[in-house]
Amino acid sequence: MTKSRRATTLIRLLLAAATGACLTTACGVLPGSSGGSGDTLTVMTFAPMGTKATNMPGMPGMAKAYERWINANGGIKGRKLRVLTCNEKNTATGAADCAREAITKKAVAVVGSYSQYGRAFMAPLEAEGIPFIGGYGVSAEEFQSTLSYPVNGGQPALLAGAGHQLGKACAQVSLVRPDTLAGDTMPVLLNAGLKSNGTPEASDIRAAEDAADLMPQAREALSDTATGGSGGGGGGGGSSKGTSTPSPSGSPSASTAAKGAASPPSSSSSSKNCVTAVLGERTETFFDAFRRADSTHRNPQISSVLGSVSQALVDRTGGKESPFEGTLVTSWYPVSTDPLWAPMRKVISDEAFGDDTVEADDSGAQTTWIAYTVFNQVVQKFKEGDQITGRKVARVLNESSGIATGNLTPELSWRYQDMRAVAGFPRLVNGRVSFQVVQQGRLVAQPGEKDQDMTSVMESAPRSA
């Protein structure tokens, strides 16, 4: 009996020792540790879906397609990828809830996500050391937090690029934009681009983010095209050279004005004014109102930025007969028909054939693809058997001298020496934009306009965040 008790005690001691060893070595996972140990890497992608304002369902859709594709091909360096998705709902509460879910479920990174509520999601992620890789670039915090790793220049680069593009083609510009904190930075950056070409500041016309009736803003913008600009402040006078900037949901009706503008002027000597709208999914609503308000057929040229006018929108609104024919577009990336996108197109074809939210022409899907490419490259730098945590991923990102994205962007690096002197946006490391135009129903590279780094233009802008 005594021997039996001694044997039982000895077994229990051995089991306790073994369990303790496993908790501190590779036998298992420490309670509360990040989801990168073992055979699975957990990450999250969040974006607004089904809201009354901007929606980006293609971002989580692309993330899930990437998950299926990478796992079908052996995972990332032998580790299975687990992608969590979350509806950010276009609210600060939704953004914070998504961040907390990422923490609760031990995500090692948030990858390729969209939210304008940077304060709401970055603070919880920072507290847990979880990096934010490749956000869409609509919140200032994405370019300020030391745990944010933007893959493009975000709205700042697009607005500065649009100003540069329009400054060469327009005498006066009217900007219609959301009356939000994110929207408040838009006139500052657009004006910096306009100034680089000697064009007066844009009229600043604000609209409620979820407004259903945008006729008042349409009338004000149309009035500016006749008077040389006065709406909302900020604009010096000009004559009449039109270009307008649609947003993630540009509207066909408004683009009738753009027809015949496929070869925009190369200088601001033209007498036409420009109207640019950056209103998310409400852009289509705005341009529909704008077309109806233009009863005298002044037909100002319109323009847009990536995510405001897309190939899908042009196709949906008539292709060659689309009212967006001739629209100028500023983008972060090469045109969607570029062979550089072939790997992404194949993944979408193979893994997202039943998901109509994922389109190769969608800027959200493109950004998510690039963000996951960066994450993949980072994981490749870990040694076999290493435990991967959010803090370790951030450390590798901070130390990497250059991460390749298949030439879709310049090589990316977020070391201290790679930061740019852009007021309010110190984490901005890629200021490159491309200039496009809708011709014969297709978004193509704008003739005579090469990709350009807008960093110096953004550096000249007053602090806007």
Report on the biggest sheet.
8 strands, mixed
Oligomer: single chain
- Coarse shape: globular
Number of helices: 14
Total strands: the figure is: 13
CA-based gyration radius: 25 Å
Model regions low in confidence, pLDDT < 50 over at least 5 residues: 1-34, 229-269
Q: Percent helix among the residues?
A: 25-40%
Give the helix/strand layout.
Blueprint: H1 2-24, E1 40-47, H2 58-72, E2 80-87, H3 92-104, E3 109-111, H4 118-128, E4 132-133, E5 148-149, H5 154-167, E6 172-178, H6 181-184, H7 186-195, E7 203-207, H8 215-227, E8 273-277, H9 283-293, E9 302-305, H10 311-316, E10 328-331, H11 342-351, H12 363-380, H13 390-399, E11 432-439, E12 442-445, E13 452-453, H14 455-459
Parallel strand pairs: 1-2, 1-3, 3-4, 4-5, 6-7, 6-8, 8-9, 9-10
Antiparallel strand pairs: 10-11, 11-12, 11-13
Helix pairs in contact: 2-11, 2-12, 3-4, 5-7, 8-9
Explained architecture:
The chain is of the alpha/beta class and 465 residues long. Helices cover 35% and strands 13% of the residues. Strands 6, 7, 8, 9, 10, 11, 12 and 13 form an 8-stranded mixed beta sheet that branches. Mean pLDDT is 82; it is low at 1-34 and 229-269.
Keywords for this entry:
single chain; 465 residues; alpha/beta; eight-stranded mixed β-sheet; five-stranded parallel β-sheet; 13 strands; 35% helix; 13% strand; globular
